Protein backbone atom coordinates (compact mmCIF):
# COMPACT_ATOMS: atom_id res chain seq x y z
CA UNK A 1 0.00 0.00 0.00
CA UNK A 2 1.35 3.40 -0.98
CA UNK A 3 2.84 5.42 1.87
CA UNK A 4 1.67 8.91 2.80
CA UNK A 5 -2.00 8.11 3.39
CA UNK A 6 -3.24 9.32 6.76
CA UNK A 7 -4.81 6.87 9.20
CA UNK A 8 -8.04 8.86 9.43
CA UNK A 9 -8.50 8.50 5.65
CA UNK A 10 -8.01 4.73 5.89
CA UNK A 11 -10.42 4.40 8.81
CA UNK A 12 -13.00 6.33 6.80
CA UNK A 13 -12.40 3.88 3.94
CA UNK A 14 -13.04 0.92 6.26
CA UNK A 15 -16.36 2.45 7.30
CA UNK A 16 -17.31 2.97 3.66
CA UNK A 17 -16.46 -0.65 2.84
CA UNK A 18 -18.87 -1.85 5.55
CA UNK A 19 -21.65 0.12 3.88
CA UNK A 20 -20.74 -1.10 0.38
CA UNK A 21 -20.84 -4.72 1.56
CA UNK A 22 -24.46 -4.20 2.65
CA UNK A 23 -25.48 -2.35 -0.51
CA UNK A 24 -24.19 -4.88 -3.04
CA UNK A 25 -23.82 -8.63 -3.12
CA UNK A 26 -20.13 -9.45 -3.03
CA UNK A 27 -18.46 -12.88 -3.07
CA UNK A 28 -17.44 -14.06 0.36
CA UNK A 29 -14.08 -12.64 1.50
CA UNK A 30 -13.66 -10.54 -1.68
CA UNK A 31 -12.83 -7.49 0.43
CA UNK A 32 -11.29 -9.37 3.35
CA UNK A 33 -7.66 -9.23 2.17
CA UNK A 34 -7.92 -5.55 1.29
CA UNK A 35 -9.38 -4.71 4.71
CA UNK A 36 -6.64 -6.74 6.44
CA UNK A 37 -4.01 -4.74 4.50
CA UNK A 38 -5.59 -1.52 5.74
CA UNK A 39 -5.57 -2.75 9.34
CA UNK A 40 -1.90 -3.71 8.96
CA UNK A 41 -0.97 -0.34 7.46
CA UNK A 42 -2.67 1.61 10.23
CA UNK A 43 -0.63 -0.36 12.75
CA UNK A 44 -3.12 -0.28 15.62
CA UNK A 45 -4.97 -3.13 17.29
CA UNK A 46 -8.45 -3.96 15.97
CA UNK A 47 -10.21 -2.65 19.11
CA UNK A 48 -8.57 0.78 18.78
CA UNK A 49 -9.45 0.95 15.08
CA UNK A 50 -13.03 -0.08 15.84
CA UNK A 51 -13.33 2.71 18.42
CA UNK A 52 -12.06 5.23 15.87
CA UNK A 53 -14.59 3.94 13.35
CA UNK A 54 -17.30 4.34 15.98
CA UNK A 55 -16.23 7.97 16.27
CA UNK A 56 -16.92 8.45 12.56
CA UNK A 57 -20.28 6.72 12.96
CA UNK A 58 -21.20 9.26 15.66
CA UNK A 59 -20.78 11.92 12.99
CA UNK A 60 -23.29 10.00 10.86
CA UNK A 61 -25.74 9.76 13.75
CA UNK A 62 -25.63 13.50 14.37
CA UNK A 63 -25.99 14.27 10.66
CA UNK A 64 -28.89 11.84 10.17
CA UNK A 65 -31.11 13.17 12.94
CA UNK A 66 -30.18 16.77 12.04
CA UNK A 67 -31.52 16.16 8.53
CA UNK A 68 -34.67 14.62 10.01
CA UNK A 69 -35.47 17.71 12.07
CA UNK A 70 -36.04 19.59 8.82
CA UNK A 71 -34.28 22.92 9.35
CA UNK A 72 -31.12 22.26 7.32
CA UNK A 73 -30.73 23.95 3.93
CA UNK A 74 -27.40 22.33 3.09
CA UNK A 75 -24.63 20.40 4.81
CA UNK A 76 -21.14 19.51 3.59
CA UNK A 77 -18.85 16.93 5.15
CA UNK A 78 -15.34 18.42 5.26
CA UNK A 79 -12.35 16.29 4.33
CA UNK A 80 -9.57 16.32 6.90
CA UNK A 81 -6.85 16.63 4.26
CA UNK A 82 -4.86 19.88 4.44
CA UNK A 83 -2.99 21.24 1.43
CA UNK A 84 -1.19 23.87 3.48
CA UNK A 85 0.48 22.60 6.65
CA UNK A 86 -0.53 25.29 9.14
CA UNK A 87 -1.34 22.87 11.99
CA UNK A 88 -4.98 23.92 12.12
CA UNK A 89 -7.73 21.37 12.76
CA UNK A 90 -10.56 21.12 10.22
CA UNK A 91 -14.10 20.68 11.66
CA UNK A 92 -16.32 17.80 10.53
CA UNK A 93 -19.14 19.71 8.82
CA UNK A 94 -20.19 23.00 7.28
CA UNK A 95 -23.89 23.60 7.97
CA UNK A 96 -26.35 26.06 6.44
CA UNK A 97 -29.70 26.29 8.26
CA UNK A 98 -32.80 28.45 8.05
CA UNK A 99 -32.35 31.65 10.00
CA UNK A 100 -33.92 31.17 13.45
CA UNK A 101 -36.97 33.22 14.40
CA UNK A 102 -35.12 34.43 17.48
CA UNK A 103 -32.51 36.07 15.24
CA UNK A 104 -34.48 37.15 12.18
CA UNK A 105 -38.21 37.74 11.76
CA UNK A 106 -38.11 38.85 8.13
CA UNK A 107 -40.04 36.84 5.56
CA UNK A 108 -37.25 36.23 2.95
CA UNK A 109 -35.46 32.94 3.59
CA UNK A 110 -31.99 33.55 4.97
CA UNK A 111 -29.27 31.05 5.76
CA UNK A 112 -27.10 30.89 8.85
CA UNK A 113 -23.78 29.16 8.22
CA UNK A 114 -21.47 27.57 10.79
CA UNK A 115 -18.92 24.81 11.31
CA UNK A 116 -19.67 21.72 13.42
CA UNK A 117 -17.17 19.47 15.18
CA UNK A 118 -18.60 16.18 16.50
CA UNK A 119 -17.39 14.90 19.87
CA UNK A 120 -18.44 12.31 22.42
CA UNK A 121 -18.13 12.22 26.18
CA UNK A 122 -16.39 9.15 27.52
CA UNK A 123 -18.85 6.40 28.37
CA UNK A 124 -20.16 6.69 31.91
CA UNK A 125 -18.42 10.03 32.61
CA UNK A 126 -20.34 13.16 33.54
CA UNK A 127 -17.90 15.75 32.16
CA UNK A 128 -16.95 16.92 28.70
CA UNK A 129 -13.23 17.54 28.34
CA UNK A 130 -11.37 19.18 25.43
CA UNK A 131 -7.72 20.23 25.44
CA UNK A 132 -7.00 23.92 25.03
CA UNK A 133 -4.50 23.18 22.25
CA UNK A 134 -7.10 21.26 20.24
CA UNK A 135 -9.72 23.94 20.88
CA UNK A 136 -7.43 26.77 19.79
CA UNK A 137 -6.43 25.01 16.55
CA UNK A 138 -9.97 24.22 15.42
CA UNK A 139 -11.27 27.63 16.54
CA UNK A 140 -8.50 29.30 14.48
CA UNK A 141 -9.69 27.40 11.40
CA UNK A 142 -13.26 28.69 11.86
CA UNK A 143 -11.98 32.24 12.35
CA UNK A 144 -10.13 32.04 9.00
CA UNK A 145 -13.57 31.89 7.36
CA UNK A 146 -15.27 34.25 9.84
CA UNK A 147 -17.84 31.59 10.72
CA UNK A 148 -19.00 30.44 14.17
CA UNK A 149 -17.96 27.03 15.46
CA UNK A 150 -20.29 24.64 17.29
CA UNK A 151 -19.49 21.36 19.02
CA UNK A 152 -22.03 18.54 18.62
CA UNK A 153 -21.48 16.58 21.82
CA UNK A 154 -22.98 13.21 22.68
CA UNK A 155 -23.39 12.40 26.34
CA UNK A 156 -22.97 8.62 26.40
CA UNK A 157 -24.49 7.43 29.66
CA UNK A 158 -27.69 5.67 30.76
CA UNK A 159 -29.78 8.26 28.91
CA UNK A 160 -27.77 9.35 25.83
CA UNK A 161 -28.34 12.86 24.50
CA UNK A 162 -26.85 15.20 21.90
CA UNK A 163 -26.11 18.88 22.45
CA UNK A 164 -25.03 21.58 19.98
CA UNK A 165 -22.79 23.96 21.93
CA UNK A 166 -21.28 27.24 20.70
CA UNK A 167 -17.49 27.24 21.11
CA UNK A 168 -17.50 30.46 23.14
CA UNK A 169 -19.59 28.67 25.78
CA UNK A 170 -16.45 26.81 26.87
CA UNK A 171 -14.56 30.07 27.26
CA UNK A 172 -17.38 31.68 29.24
CA UNK A 173 -18.68 28.78 31.34
CA UNK A 174 -16.04 26.05 31.20
CA UNK A 175 -13.35 25.55 33.85
CA UNK A 176 -9.68 25.26 32.88
CA UNK A 177 -8.12 22.26 34.58
CA UNK A 178 -5.25 19.88 33.95
CA UNK A 179 -6.62 16.55 32.72
CA UNK A 180 -5.34 13.46 30.93
CA UNK A 181 -6.20 13.58 27.23
CA UNK A 182 -4.83 11.16 24.61
CA UNK A 183 -2.40 9.69 27.09
CA UNK A 184 -0.90 12.91 28.43
CA UNK A 185 -1.68 15.61 30.98
CA UNK A 186 -2.76 18.86 29.37
CA UNK A 187 -4.72 22.03 30.11
CA UNK A 188 -8.37 21.48 29.19
CA UNK A 189 -11.77 23.08 29.18
CA UNK A 190 -14.02 21.04 31.49
CA UNK A 191 -17.80 21.36 31.62
CA UNK A 192 -20.38 19.18 33.40
CA UNK A 193 -22.53 17.03 31.13
CA UNK A 194 -25.75 18.03 32.88
CA UNK A 195 -24.91 21.70 32.18
CA UNK A 196 -24.67 21.20 28.42
CA UNK A 197 -28.45 21.51 28.07
CA UNK A 198 -28.14 25.13 29.28
CA UNK A 199 -25.87 25.95 26.33
CA UNK A 200 -27.58 23.80 23.69
CA UNK A 201 -28.37 25.55 20.39
CA UNK A 202 -29.99 22.54 18.71
CA UNK A 203 -33.43 24.00 19.47
CA UNK A 204 -32.73 27.32 17.72
CA UNK A 205 -30.60 26.05 14.83
CA UNK A 206 -31.96 22.54 14.13
CA UNK A 207 -35.61 22.84 15.34
CA UNK A 208 -35.03 20.40 18.18
CA UNK A 209 -37.05 20.73 21.40
CA UNK A 210 -38.01 18.91 24.57
CA UNK A 211 -41.12 16.73 24.43
CA UNK A 212 -43.06 16.58 27.69
CA UNK A 213 -45.11 13.45 28.36
CA UNK A 214 -47.29 14.58 31.27
CA UNK A 215 -48.23 12.50 34.26
CA UNK A 216 -51.70 11.07 33.97
CA UNK A 217 -51.61 10.29 30.27
CA UNK A 218 -53.45 7.02 29.64
CA UNK A 219 -53.32 5.05 26.41
CA UNK A 220 -55.60 2.12 25.60
CA UNK A 221 -54.47 -0.12 22.71
CA UNK A 222 -56.86 -2.66 21.20
CA UNK A 223 -55.34 -5.59 19.26
CA UNK A 224 -56.95 -8.37 17.25
CA UNK A 225 -55.37 -10.73 19.83
CA UNK A 226 -52.87 -10.84 22.69
CA UNK A 227 -51.01 -14.05 23.52
CA UNK A 228 -47.83 -15.24 25.20
CA UNK A 229 -46.08 -14.85 21.85
CA UNK A 230 -46.86 -11.14 21.77
CA UNK A 231 -49.36 -8.63 20.47
CA UNK A 232 -51.29 -8.93 17.21
CA UNK A 233 -52.37 -6.17 14.83
CA UNK A 234 -53.59 -2.89 16.32
CA UNK A 235 -57.30 -2.30 15.81
CA UNK A 236 -57.63 1.03 17.63
CA UNK A 237 -55.85 3.35 20.02
CA UNK A 238 -57.55 5.58 22.58
CA UNK A 239 -56.00 8.17 24.89
CA UNK A 240 -57.08 10.43 27.73
CA UNK A 241 -55.95 12.40 30.76
CA UNK A 242 -59.21 11.57 32.50
CA UNK A 243 -61.64 8.66 32.42
CA UNK A 244 -63.26 9.52 29.09
CA UNK A 245 -61.11 7.75 26.50
CA UNK A 246 -61.19 9.22 23.00
CA UNK A 247 -60.24 7.21 19.94
CA UNK A 248 -57.18 8.46 18.04
CA UNK A 249 -57.83 8.27 14.31
CA UNK A 250 -55.77 9.02 11.23
CA UNK A 251 -57.01 9.22 7.64
CA UNK A 252 -54.79 6.39 6.50
CA UNK A 253 -56.07 3.47 4.42
CA UNK A 254 -52.72 1.65 4.50
CA UNK A 255 -52.42 1.88 8.31
CA UNK A 256 -48.87 3.25 8.05
CA UNK A 257 -49.72 6.19 10.30
CA UNK A 258 -51.30 3.83 12.82
CA UNK A 259 -48.07 1.80 12.86
CA UNK A 260 -46.02 4.94 13.46
CA UNK A 261 -48.37 6.08 16.21
CA UNK A 262 -48.20 2.67 17.89
CA UNK A 263 -44.41 2.72 17.77
CA UNK A 264 -44.32 6.16 19.36
CA UNK A 265 -46.71 5.08 22.12
CA UNK A 266 -44.65 1.99 22.86
CA UNK A 267 -41.50 4.08 22.84
CA UNK A 268 -42.97 6.55 25.33
CA UNK A 269 -43.94 3.66 27.57
CA UNK A 270 -40.45 2.13 27.37
CA UNK A 271 -38.66 5.44 27.98
CA UNK A 272 -40.50 6.02 31.21
CA UNK A 273 -38.83 3.19 33.14
CA UNK A 274 -36.56 5.60 35.02
CA UNK A 275 -35.90 6.55 38.63
CA UNK A 276 -38.83 4.64 40.09
CA UNK A 277 -41.41 6.33 37.88
CA UNK A 278 -42.76 4.23 35.05
CA UNK A 279 -45.63 3.72 32.68
CA UNK A 280 -47.76 1.20 34.54
CA UNK A 281 -50.06 -1.29 32.82
CA UNK A 282 -53.33 -0.69 34.65
CA UNK A 283 -55.49 -3.17 32.74
CA UNK A 284 -54.92 -5.96 30.24
CA UNK A 285 -57.14 -8.64 28.75
CA UNK A 286 -57.18 -10.84 25.67
CA UNK A 287 -57.48 -7.87 23.32
CA UNK A 288 -56.64 -4.68 25.23
CA UNK A 289 -53.69 -3.27 27.09
CA UNK A 290 -54.11 -0.01 28.96
CA UNK A 291 -51.16 1.86 30.45
CA UNK A 292 -50.81 5.05 32.42
CA UNK A 293 -47.89 7.46 32.73
CA UNK A 294 -47.16 8.10 36.41
CA UNK A 295 -44.71 11.01 36.25
CA UNK A 296 -43.84 13.97 34.04
CA UNK A 297 -40.88 13.10 31.89
CA UNK A 298 -39.11 14.57 28.91
CA UNK A 299 -37.68 13.20 25.68
CA UNK A 300 -35.57 15.14 23.22
CA UNK A 301 -37.55 15.57 20.00
CA UNK A 302 -34.73 14.29 17.78
CA UNK A 303 -34.55 11.07 19.81
CA UNK A 304 -38.26 10.42 19.34
CA UNK A 305 -38.01 10.85 15.56
CA UNK A 306 -34.76 8.91 15.17
CA UNK A 307 -35.82 5.92 17.29
CA UNK A 308 -39.13 5.61 15.43
CA UNK A 309 -37.41 5.93 12.05
CA UNK A 310 -34.79 3.26 12.89
CA UNK A 311 -37.47 0.84 14.09
CA UNK A 312 -39.57 1.22 10.94
CA UNK A 313 -36.55 1.26 8.62
CA UNK A 314 -35.23 -1.94 10.17
CA UNK A 315 -38.58 -3.59 9.44
CA UNK A 316 -38.11 -2.72 5.75
CA UNK A 317 -34.57 -4.13 5.75
CA UNK A 318 -35.23 -7.41 7.55
CA UNK A 319 -35.11 -9.59 4.45
CA UNK A 320 -32.17 -7.76 2.90
CA UNK A 321 -30.01 -7.26 5.96
CA UNK A 322 -31.41 -9.16 8.95
CA UNK A 323 -28.36 -8.26 11.07
CA UNK A 324 -28.52 -4.59 10.14
CA UNK A 325 -29.93 -3.25 13.41
CA UNK A 326 -29.53 0.48 14.02
CA UNK A 327 -26.96 0.75 11.23
CA UNK A 328 -27.11 4.51 11.04
CA UNK A 329 -24.21 4.94 8.62
CA UNK A 330 -25.86 2.60 6.13
CA UNK A 331 -29.20 4.40 6.34
CA UNK A 332 -27.54 7.80 5.95
CA UNK A 333 -25.66 6.77 2.80
CA UNK A 334 -28.76 5.16 1.27
CA UNK A 335 -31.17 7.92 2.33
CA UNK A 336 -33.77 8.34 -0.41
CA UNK A 337 -37.16 9.88 -1.18
CA UNK A 338 -38.75 6.94 0.67
CA UNK A 339 -36.82 7.87 3.83
CA UNK A 340 -37.77 11.54 3.50
CA UNK A 341 -41.44 10.58 3.20
CA UNK A 342 -41.19 8.27 6.21
CA UNK A 343 -39.62 11.01 8.33
CA UNK A 344 -42.32 13.50 7.28
CA UNK A 345 -45.00 11.02 8.33
CA UNK A 346 -43.35 10.53 11.71
CA UNK A 347 -43.16 14.28 12.25
CA UNK A 348 -46.82 14.66 11.18
CA UNK A 349 -47.91 12.08 13.76
CA UNK A 350 -45.89 13.80 16.49
CA UNK A 351 -47.46 17.15 15.53
CA UNK A 352 -50.94 15.61 15.67
CA UNK A 353 -50.19 14.11 19.09
CA UNK A 354 -49.21 17.59 20.23
CA UNK A 355 -52.47 19.02 18.89
CA UNK A 356 -54.39 16.34 20.80
CA UNK A 357 -52.46 17.36 23.95
CA UNK A 358 -51.01 13.87 24.37
CA UNK A 359 -47.52 15.35 24.41
CA UNK A 360 -46.32 18.93 24.79
CA UNK A 361 -43.41 20.63 22.97
CA UNK A 362 -41.12 22.82 25.06
CA UNK A 363 -38.72 25.21 23.33
CA UNK A 364 -35.07 25.12 24.32
CA UNK A 365 -33.37 28.53 24.59
CA UNK A 366 -29.64 28.41 25.43
CA UNK A 367 -28.45 30.32 28.46
CA UNK A 368 -26.03 32.54 26.55
CA UNK A 369 -28.77 34.32 24.57
CA UNK A 370 -31.54 34.47 27.19
CA UNK A 371 -32.84 37.99 27.66
From TrEMBL:
This is Uncharacterized protein.
Amino acid sequence: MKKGIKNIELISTLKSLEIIEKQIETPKNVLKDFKEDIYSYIGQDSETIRKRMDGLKKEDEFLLFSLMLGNILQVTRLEQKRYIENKLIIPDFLFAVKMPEQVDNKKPLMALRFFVEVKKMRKGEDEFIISLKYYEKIKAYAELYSLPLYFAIKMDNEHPAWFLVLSESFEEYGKIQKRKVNGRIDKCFVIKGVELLNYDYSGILLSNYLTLIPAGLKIDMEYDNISKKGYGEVISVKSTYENDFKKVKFNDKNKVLDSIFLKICNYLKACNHIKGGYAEIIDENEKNTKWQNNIDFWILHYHLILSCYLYLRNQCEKDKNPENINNISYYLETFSKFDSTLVLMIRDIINEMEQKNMIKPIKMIPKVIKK
